[in-house]
Amino acid sequence: MGKLTHRFKEKFAEKRTKFSSTILSMRGAKRVPKQPKSRSVVRAGLRSGESVRVLIPHARVSARLRQLAREIRRDFPKDRLHLIGVLKGCVFFLADLARELGGEVSFDFMAVSSYGKGTASTGEVKLIKDLDVSIEGKTIIVVEDILDTGLTLKYLLRLFEQRKPKDLRVVVLLDKVDRRIVDVRADYIGFTIPNEFVVGYGLDFDERYRNLGDVCVLQFDSRATEKSE
Length: 229
Ligand code: PRP
Known about the structure:
By secondary structure, the protein is α/β, with parallel strands linked by helices.
């Protein structure tokens, strides 16, 4: 006695499901479709003689980026953050970071070119595109994909300091510490990486591979190079 029959249980379950769906639609909630499993490597135009090895999978980049955004927001909880991206490698990093930061965020871009990159002798940096708006009195976060010799960042920081921002900080996704030739540091660092040629997530080789989701090491097949010579 008092036991629900099987049929009654079924009916009861059916009603409860209908009731839940009504509540969901009343609140304007939509059922979220099943998400496809994320792929670790998106193929991006590999040429013969070149191959890529994943160094930092996209999921790890995203997770670290969320932490960086939290660290930055903790330091400036109420400020409007004015992000300055250094083209072109910064584009995905800046776009993803801006969406994680929350609060008031604005951004602007610079373009520079460096001559004799990688050699200690020159280190001349040329301004290709300046900022659109003044940074005076603003909380500035310079967003760089990679810190290598440090020449670009040194040049930019000197330039920005003269423009009297309220605060000036630097966030880099990748820091190749072994390659540094000038004394410059980032305030927030995604990953410290070894001295290897990295591409993907904005970083290029001859303008290619920027569209890889993962940060990868680009490898050259020496036999293919020899054949083509
Ligand atoms: C990269 C990067 C930095 C710079 C760092 O830019 O975005 O701006 O190199 O190197 P450094 O520490 O030796 O000065 P790159 O010149 O590759 O241009 P890109 O962003 O357009 O790819």
